[in-house]
């Protein structure tokens, strides 16, 4: 699932372009308001409100940056390789290694996302965190 919160028609257009441009498209896009996202539905990407139902959640609430067309594919491959519960940017530019904390989570197991636990507490609760960088601007 991709979580997004486009604020205007320009961000809606940007979200649609970024999602449809992914080599590995998400199963769903979760937004506060689905207006203007009919193109995603037509392309087979479910648009919904409420909590995500897909097993993995990618936070795209910041739509100002560019995302490479391989972002979701890269993240899912890194998750398969690592078996981690969350992946993202870590302090010090760590890459492809387990870390005690993520500075910016990019992909999170749905159950962890829905738990409401703050990211700084994830490792202490036994969750495996894997650092990736270079997948999008940090």
Task: Write a concise keyword list for the protein shown above.
138 residues, alpha/beta, 2 domains, eight-stranded mixed β-sheet, 4 helices, 8 strands, 25% helix, globular
Q: What is the total domain count?
A: 2
**Residues in helices, as a percent range:** 25-40%
Percent of residues in β-strands: 15-25%
Order of helices and strands: EHEHEEHEEEHE
Number of helices in the DSSP assignment:
4
Q: Which structural class matches the secondary elements? A: alpha/beta
Task: Give a count of the beta strands, DSSP E runs of length 2 or more.
Answer: 8
Q: Which strand order do you get reading across the main beta sheet?
A: 3-2-1-4-7-5-8-6
Shape: globular
The mean pLDDT is: 94
Gyration radius, to the nearest Å? Answer: 15 Å
Distance between the termini: 20 Å
What composes the largest sheet? 8 strands, mixed
Q: Give the low-confidence spans.
A: none
């Amino acid at each position: 699932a991709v979580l997004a919160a486009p604020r205007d028609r320009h961000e809606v257009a940007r979200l649609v372009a970024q999602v449809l441009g992914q080599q590995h498209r998400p199963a769903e896009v979760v937004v506060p308001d689905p207006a203007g996202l009919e193109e995603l539905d037509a392309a087979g990407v479910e648009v919904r409100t409420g909590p995500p139902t897909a097993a993995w959640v990618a936070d795209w609430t910041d739509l100002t940056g560019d995302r490479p067309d391989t972002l979701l594919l890269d993240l899912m491959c890194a998750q398969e390789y690592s078996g981690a519960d969350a992946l993202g940017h870590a302090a010090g530019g760590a890459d492809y290694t387990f870390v005690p904390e993520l500075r910016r989570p990019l992909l999170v197991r749905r159950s962890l996302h829905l738990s409401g636990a703050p990211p700084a507490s994830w490792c202490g609760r036994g969750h495996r965190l894997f650092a990736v960088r270079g997948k999008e601007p940090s």
